[in-house]
Amino acid sequence: MVIGLTGGIASGKSTAARHLASLGAHVIDADAIGHRAYEADTDAYKAVLATFGEEVRGTDGQLDRRALGSKVFGDPAAMKQLTDIMWPEIRRLTEVEIAAVRETDADTVVVLEAAVLFEAGWQDTVDETWVVTAEPEIAVQRAMERDGLDQSAVQARMDAQLSNTERIALADVVVDNSGAEAAMRVRLDTEWARVTSAGAYVS
């Protein structure tokens, strides 16, 4: 069983992933995989340099993600160029890790934590999609407190993502995290019991 876990900014997706890990899931963090994909001398690294120029190479030889971000933020065409390079490579690395986990223990539940699961079209790599949601005003407040950003900066990031409504339409399981974290854990426990019960596996 591979679960695709996604959600918007400050929805609690990473908290949900940690709880599922505590229950026994093998969690793959797509963002961490993305950092690996950016490493020097990988094919993706070379493609990013060829596309965006030497100015995105840092003094340490690694990609300067801040410089790269300044080139693509607010520029949909440039952002698409970047995601067309990175998303296939992240998917490839993710699939390699999933295969390695299955080879070690076919019964291990894998959770792919990916903020861009739907945007990147990775639904076909998982058996179920779980979406963690929080009411927008709650998510904004959490993000402001967590990241030290002002409301307009958080809202701009949220506006660049899919809405809760769009994610819910694509989800197999919706986990509301607008309230107390304990309530979210109870919901996750229920779904975990379902997918780990005898005969629940679909792959």
Main sheet makeup: 5 strands, parallel
Known CATH architecture of the largest domain: 3-Layer(aba) Sandwich
CATH superfamily of the largest domain: P-loop containing nucleotide triphosphate hydrolases
Give the uncertain stretches in residue-range form: 198-203
**How many distinct helices?**
9
CATH class category name of the largest domain: Alpha Beta
Total domains, how many? Answer: 2
CATH fold group of the largest domain: Rossmann fold
**In terms of structural class, how would the helical and strand content be classed?**
alpha/beta
Strand content: 5-15%
Provide the residue-averaged pLDDT.
93
Provide the helix percentage: 40-55%
- Rg, rounded, reads 18 Å
- End-to-end Cα distance, whole Å, is 6 Å
User: Which geometry do the CA atoms define?
Assistant: globular
Write down how many β-strands occur, each being a DSSP E stretch of 2 or more residues: 5
Strand order of the largest sheet: 2-3-1-4-5
Query: Secondary-structure element order, as H and E?
Result: EHEHHHHEEHHHEH
Q: What features would you describe in this structure?
A:
- The protein is α/β, with parallel strands linked by helices and 203 residues long.
- It folds into two domains: 1-25 and 109-203, P-loop containing nucleotide triphosphate hydrolases (Rossmann fold), CATH 3.40.50.300; 32-107, 3-Layer(aba) Sandwich (Rossmann fold), CATH 3.40.50.
- The protein has nine helices and five strands; from the N terminus they run βαβααααββαααβα.
- A five-stranded parallel β-sheet has the order 2-3-1-4-5, sandwiched between helices.
- The longest helix has 29 residues, at 76-104.
- The chain is globular and about 50 Å long.
- Residues 198-203 have low confidence and may be disordered.
